[in-house]
Amino acid sequence: MSVFGLSGEAAIPLVLGNLLNLYAAIGGILTLELTVKEVFIIAVMLSFSHNLLIETGVALKSGVKLWVVLSVRIGLALVAAFIINLVWPGGSEMVQYGLITANETAPVGMAAIFLAGLQKAVLGTLQLAMIVIPLMIGIQILKDLKWLNVFTGWMAPVTRGLGMNENTALVLTAGLIFGLAYGAGVLLQAVKEDGVSKKDATLAFIFLVACHAVVEDTLIFVPLGIPVFPLFIIRLCTAIALTLIVSRIWNRMELAAKRKGISYETKY
């Protein structure tokens, strides 16, 4: 774990996040004494790789290969953690978890330990509720007012720039707003009904792996006392760069295959 700038106990929220979800991971983080740098690295890793069991299952149904799902998600998490640890010398101070105040002295006795843990749990839950409940209401309003179609129109030029057809615009919009599982569900429907190609489905999934649920998955890290704007920028830039790279490589491979086919037909 040291190569990623993390202590051994950081494995607890990472396991919880990957097997369950971000909320379980945040609950685990709130019980630990970590530095700002450690919490930020954990947040970046979990942004790329979390809820693997459910979200991977949905992605597989949409036609994306298992090795693509796991290698991209886990690979991004590990590479990002390594790079951040390498280039960021700061963040050595202990993190302040929002409303949770640090104890100057360690609690003594079972009752004191229990009360300190209960206080952290209650305050942590309260902070998450203050963010998540209004956020969920806002997302539901977006669904009810059918603004998703409006945002989809805005995303059409973006999909073209990323090397995808415009019929993936709805997929990217749904994933960016509502999350990877919801976006993968829309992707599954788009593959069946709108004729989204295997290439576009894979590119859309790669983009959403790096950057999905941008509002929720960014704001829920606010109670952890870390800078969330850099977290958002890292996810967005990674999604754009990775999708463009894979798209260019895929296009060159298709072009090379076509040239071979033409030369084969000409020769024989």
TrEMBL record:
Alphabetical list of Pfam families matching this protein: Gate
Sequence ranges assigned to domain Nucleoside transporter/FeoB GTPase Gate in this UniProt record: 126-215
Key words of the record: Membrane, Transmembrane, Transmembrane helix
Membrane is among the record's keywords: yes
Regions that span the bilayer: 12-32, 38-54, 66-88, 122-142, 169-191, 203-226, 232-250
InterPro entries with a match to the protein in the record: Gate_dom
Keyword Transmembrane part of the UniProt annotation: yes
Protein name listed in UniProt: Nucleoside transporter/FeoB GTPase Gate domain-containing protein
